[in-house]
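FAQ: What does the model actually see?

It sees only this:
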Amino acid sequence: MKQSLPIVALIGLGILGLSQVGISNSGGSPTGRSGSPASSNRTCLSSGCHSGGAASTQNITITSDIPATGFEENTNYTITISADANGGQGTRIGFAASVENAGGTHQGTLTSADGRTNVFNDFATHTSTSLSPTAGVNSWDLTWNSGTAEDQSTVYVAVNFANGNGTTSGDQVGTQTLVLDKASGIGVEEFTISDMKLYPNPAVEELHLDFSLASSNEVVYSIFGMDGREIMNKNEGLLGTGDHTLNVPVTELETGTYLIHIQAGDRVLAERFMVQ
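And it is asked to produce this:
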């Protein structure tokens, strides 16, 4: 099970505390701004709290200590969110995150692991003292108790790279997801399709999609807008066992964030990507 997926963040208005003016809710973003189904795909950028456009040069990663065999029920794991300004703007960096299924039901329980985060109504966010990056990088640790979470529960993250101009204008927001596989009676190597990787992200002309097949299967990929509308669907036909790379053209897609599904047999993997 590969668990890397970059991009993140959120942050709302002065209420998020990213601007350097006095505000009444500097302890984190409002709930429902992680870009998740329960958030109605909203971040503080799409909700009008901040303005400035999508993150471009910045990098967001989500990692966990869940083993390759998948997570066990009622077990604590550490989820780490890292945001790198990567030479772009990010004088102050904050985030919002949640763990949900595809229908928007929260999965497991999130709590702070490092004292630098708060959790409100199943949404995690930064604190007023955890906004300042070091050498352009900020990170936060969360403890996730899996409870009875479903297979392919997803970590949704939105990150706000603020410019520190004392207002809510000119800030840049990015999102990222990480799909969590649940342990089962079969090894991860027996999954029909696994090890999905997208690059470059953001994409300009083509999105390269790497994955592995445990056996020969018909492979179909679909691209969806953040409103849930299917934009593209292509059947790649029967592909053999082993590693594969698909080259997905994105020149006809408008600048923005999308979700790609790839299906082989009865297993579907999904990741977000951006087009710039």
